[in-house]
């Protein structure tokens, strides 16, 4: 009897490289990790990483977390994040990634929406006490049974995972490794509001393949990622790309340019994956002389409507690949040509690599009847973005939709037939990787008090930035904290004598 083909999981990819080269370097921590988290930087081989993964996985099993339950993770871009994700998958758990910009309100909503059974965090990140944030959010999430943390000075009742890593692995659990099983849940904001987006392993791997094949990342490469991992694009560009290449993953917690440059040179990184605006700034600073080991640069655009107007890439020794991100819906990549300018993106199926005839189809790009950009393909979670059932028509079956409407306004260029992305989704703001409804600004401004102003200004680096004024700036920050907003997100809020 023929056995059906089973697609690989992320842990399957890890164990393939582990079997082939157990003593090869696998994970490299940020050089400034002591400042970011209080931990000393770690360098792990595949065998050492496997031992740590096995210990964490055993702890999750021994804690009584059932297979297929959800474990929430809010961690910085360090070795602990990678180990926790792979350990959760090895224990048969589904990972829900929580952005570091989130505070109490968003954390509680996400934990309750996903019925998470556990949450893993770091004691402190950049001076912010994330352990306390996790404990307070868990207190309002009835499904949470375990709160775990890395680092020192953890609150009472929080399990210390550093101690788990220091002891031999314990109980294991047999888990069927099938790429069709749920792997992660990320979170998006659409016109309909806050939306959990689940994905199987093969969807994450498809996103990683689309990037690595388009950028022509070689097997065994040392990959430097300076992109926050708490999203689909973050996981695909770091974890999936690394496991597909079977090389070394160097991590950088965004952003310290001098430290990033030092890491790239010290580890002789061949690939840099970073926000596109950061990559373009590095490209303007004599990249060949300052970082000679680089051979590929992957720039991730959170604001894909800005790609067409971006500057030319002037570092031919390390070609730039533009990756267009559409929230949590999906992505596609396009490697720039010899002139360094963005290449036209045509509607229809696109392969990976894009220009190679006969390449595997990575996805499909289309223009919807509403004049917006639609995506479909193996990485696109169509069911998660299904439109709501019309009121009063609950007994009438809706026509199936085989694509996700990203909400990005788009049109076709008449002379070339290329797709032009012209504007972000209506009513959605983005500050860094944090997306929210523009209507929320009115509520936030109301809480600031009489005479206060809070607005989102266009910004080429982050999409938008928050700026404002208030008669009592201390009270304004206190009010924003009461709403659960991270101070990193509102750092642009300051006293002004005139309008923002």
Automatic annotation (TrEMBL):
GO terms (BP aspect): fatty acid metabolic process
Extent of the signal sequence: none
Q: Does the keyword S-adenosyl-L-methionine apply?
A: no
Q: What is this protein called?
A: AMP-dependent synthetase
- In what residue span(s) does the AMP-dependent synthetase/ligase domain sit? 14-333
What GO molecular-function term can you cite, just one?
A: medium-chain fatty acid-CoA ligase activity
User: Member of which family?
Assistant: Belongs to the ATP-dependent AMP-binding enzyme family.
Q: Tell me which InterPro entries the record gives.
A: AMP-dep_synth/lig_dom, ANL_N_sf
| Keywords noted in UniProt | Ligase
Q: Does the keyword rRNA-binding apply?
A: no
Give the matching Pfam families.
Answer: AMP-binding
